[in-house]
Specification:
The radius of gyration is 14 Å and the shape is globular. It is 35% helix and 23% strand. Helix 1 packs parallel to helix 4. The longest helix has 20 residues. The chain has a six-stranded antiparallel sheet. By secondary structure, the protein is an alpha+beta fold. It has one domain: Alpha-Beta Complex (Aspartate Aminotransferase, domain 1).
């Protein structure tokens, strides 16, 4: 199967992890190969705060999740397999669909959203 089709499938699955949070945030980009969520303007910061994004690149599909930088303790319980997909402090890269890891990433995303909500970062 051509890499572009594989990456398109990965993108769809990872986008589905972020999409439920769109009703609480602002979708800055929703394009083929790029989905980007940020909070609505947060009064205490005076601007929007990045939450997460999915982006197709030439080599992989990246899932960015800023709450793991804001709340690093969220990473303490991730599996070594998911940690192997980390690039930097907030990015996970995938070259194919990995249901078990995507389920773990879904739970991590939920925990990040809950942290934003508790911390008043959602601007509501």
């Amino acid at each position: 199967m051509p890499l572009a089709l594989v990456f398109a499938g990965v993108f769809v699955r990872l986008r589905a992890i972020l999409a439920p949070y769109a009703k609480h945030m602002h979708v800055k980009h929703d394009l083929p190969g790029l989905y980007y969520l940020e909070t609505i303007p947060v009064p205490k910061y005076g601007e929007e705060v990045f939450f997460g994004a999915v982006q197709v690149t030439a080599d992989h599909v990246s899932f960015h999740l800023l709450p793991v930088d804001v709340f690093p303790e969220l990473l303490e319980s991730i599996s070594p397999k998911l940690r192997d997909h980390m690039q930097g402090s907030t990015c996970f890269n995938f070259r194919n669909i990995q249901p078990g890891l995507f389920s773990e990433l879904k739970a991590l995303t939920r925990a990040g959203f809950d942290g934003y909500e508790r911390g008043g970062v959602l601007g509501r």
